[in-house]
Amino acid sequence: MKPMITAFADSPDKGEGHARDMRVRWALEEVGQPYDVRLRSMKELKEPEHLALNPFGSIPTYEEGSLSLFESGSIVLHIAGSNPGLLPIEPDSRARAITWMFAALNTVEPPIVEREAFMLLENDTNWFDERMPILEGNVRKRLAELSASLGESDWLDGEFTAGDLLMVTVLRRLEASNIPEGPNILEEYPNLSAYVARGKSRPAFERAFADQLAVFSGGR
Amino acid sequence: MKPMITAFADSPDKGEGHARDMRVRWALEEVGQPYDVRLRSMKELKEPEHLALNPFGSIPTYEEGSLSLFESGSIVLHIAGSNPGLLPIEPDSRARAITWMFAALNTVEPPIVEREAFMLLENDTNWFDERMPILEGNVRKRLAELSASLGESDWLDGEFTAGDLLMVTVLRRLEASNIPEGPNILEEYPNLSAYVARGKSRPAFERAFADQLAVFSGGR
Question: Which residues of chain A neighbour B77 with C-beta distances below 8 Å?
Answer without folding.
Answer: 98, 102
